[in-house]
Amino acid sequence: MKLDAIDLRILEAVSRDGRITKLRLAEIAGLSPTPCWLRLRKLEQAGIIAGYHARIEPRKIAPFTSVIMEVSLANHRQADFERFERAVTARPEVAACWSVGGGVDYFLRVVARDIDAYQRLVDELLAAEIGIERYFTYIVTRTVKDEPGFPVALLG
């Protein structure tokens, strides 16, 4: 699907505020409400807008620890990658997992109640024999920037 400047304005607006009103979205897009709403629906149907989410402030609920985990696998066959990815996808503590090029295979963002809970997760992953050769742990001490959206303006 070819996107124009209006589509990009719509995407930028809904990425910042998923609860934006139809009227406000139309104003930002520079359209009347009905054509704007039709464009929004087309973006949703094309899968460009994959969903809408609330941004939760977890520290207001309970304390937690964020950990970045660097993982290298022992073997690099497709089955090894698939086994590892299935295992980490099934773990709710693994908030994100990125397969990367370079000297390591994956980076994970793990959320745990505390360091002990994180270590129990690591012990379980190692015991599951999912191919982890080595891992490194980086404790997040302070979040500087964590934007959930995508910088749509860079696409234009």
Protein described:
Helix content is 37%, strand content 19%. By secondary structure, the protein is of the alpha+beta class. α1 (5-16) packs across α2 and α2 (22-29) packs across α3 (33-45). 16% of the residues are buried.
| Rounded mean pLDDT score | 94
| Percent of residues in β-strands | 15-25%
- Largest sheet geometry: 4 strands, antiparallel
Shape: elongated
Question: How many strands in all?
Answer: 4
Reading the helices and strands in chain order gives HHHEHEEHE
- Main-sheet strand order equals 2-3-1-4
Helix content: 25-40%
Q: What's the N-to-C terminus distance?
A: 14 Å
Radius of gyration: 20 Å
Short description:
With 156 residues, the protein is of the alpha+beta class. The protein has 5 helices and 4 strands.
Features:
156 residues, alpha+beta, 4-stranded antiparallel β-sheet, 5 helices, 37% helix, elongated
Write the layout of secondary structure elements.
Layout: H1 5-16, H2 22-29, H3 33-45, E1 65-73, H4 78-89, E2 94-99, E3 106-112, H5 115-127, E4 132-139
Antiparallel strand pairs: 1-3, 1-4, 2-3
Helix pairs in contact: 1-2, 2-3
